[in-house]
Amino acid sequence: MRILEKFILPFCFCIVLLLNYTVAESQQLSGSVAKGDGKWVYLLEYYGRNLQLTDSAKIKDSKVVFKKNQEPGFYRLSLDKENGVTLILGKEQVVFAADATSFVSSVKLSNSKENAAYFKYLEANNNFSVKVNEINARIRQFAEANGTNNDKFNKMLQGEKALFDSLNNIRQAILDDLAAKEKGSFIASIISYLEFKGSESEEAYLSGFSQKGINLLRGDQIYNRVSIYLQNFVFGRSTQYLPKAEALLASLPTDSAIRELTYQALIDNLQSVDQSTAVALAKKYDKEFPRKGALARYSAILNIEPEVGDDAPDIVLQNADGKTMKLTDLRGKVVLIDFWASWCGPCRRENPNVVKVYEQYKSKGFDIYSVSLDNSKDRWIEAIAKDNLGWPSHVSDLKGWQSAGAALYKVRGIPATFLVDQKGKIIAKNLRGPYLEQKLEELFR
Predict the structure, then answer these.
(1) Which of 188, 200, 239, 410 has an alpha carbon 20 to 30 Å from 108's alpha carbon atom?
(2) Residue 429's closest CA among 402, 405, 407, 411?
(3) How far apart are CA 35 and CA 29, in angstroms?
(4) Which tens digits make up the pLDDT trace of 181-224?
(5) Which segments of 198-309 are extended strands (E)?
(6) Which CATH superfamily is domain 316-444 in?
(7) What is the pTM of this model?
(8) CA 121 to chain centre
(9) For residues 185 and 172, what is the distance between their CA atoms, to the nearest angstrom?
């Protein structure tokens, strides 16, 4: 939901993280697996959020020894190459014990202060994530029940934001204490790398992407740092999404792994907020890294969403009175296809701008085809009246995010708009405020 983009926070520090650590001697992983003789145990390494097999060992007399030296960092120990347990390999000789009949739940690690610190780190962040999810659920429920363009919602939002800040302060205090106690550990460096100080400038935070002493290529570091950056410096400023993303990428070495993983992090974070930006970045990613599977990874947004220059797919839905209204009925006019909803705060805030350009250009051949992603007919009709949306083409199947129109245009975030010319060609996307006004002025001058 676009209305919550500043408040739905991607705290997902629980996958894996890796630091570049100087190892005095070769690390080694060994252990025992009961009831597993003849089976293989697999060790997988992380590249960004992806896993790849790096070693394997056969269980013999319940014993397992991995002899291949690994780079320091986080790995997954698995009996089936899919499900497993994340652990750190570093300076310590890590020993594990497990049972083949319930491998994941039975794995126990010993002889490893690093892994003990890591589990404390996970516990603090997982507990926090549970609370954040509860906050987000309450905000969504309240918005759907009461709308967002009112004082009641704003007051509720302020309260939940205050609770979030309090929980985040508690979490950070726990992590700071852990970093102090485990000074020099992987986790201490991770905490320092991912911590965002409220007074930190955008320039200062961006400079930390290439912080020395941290191997950014394995785990969630890049993903989470990108998420924190977007939440604190970019989200809420939709016209800046693509320029900010491109500026960040431009600061990273060409054809580098960190640049590739930053592409992935940006696309993953942005595709539910601004699909057009995610598509633009996915295309650039595929062009720069053609062998990295960008087309397969992002096929849902790369191959289907209508683009500028495409024929606008026809939408056939009913208005509030049950009358069928087709997009193609407006052929011969310049048409703004506007995907919105009564519960969408950014949509409602943009509506005065849309009303303004409609009144200014309707006599010159401009029209609007509004597709609502509402579930409630009453709230839909009420919002049309309250926002003075005077054009006749208002349609909805009242299926929310399952709207047939939204599915046809692959809309994953609103407001979303497509500007269509007199011949039915898409000539622009997601123009808002002065940008929409400027484009119409060019077309009708």
Answers:
(1) 188
(2) 411
(3) 19
(4) 988 887 888 888 888 877 788 888 888 777 765 666 777 778 88
(5) none
(6) Glutaredoxin (3.40.30.10)
(7) 0.57
(8) 22
(9) 17
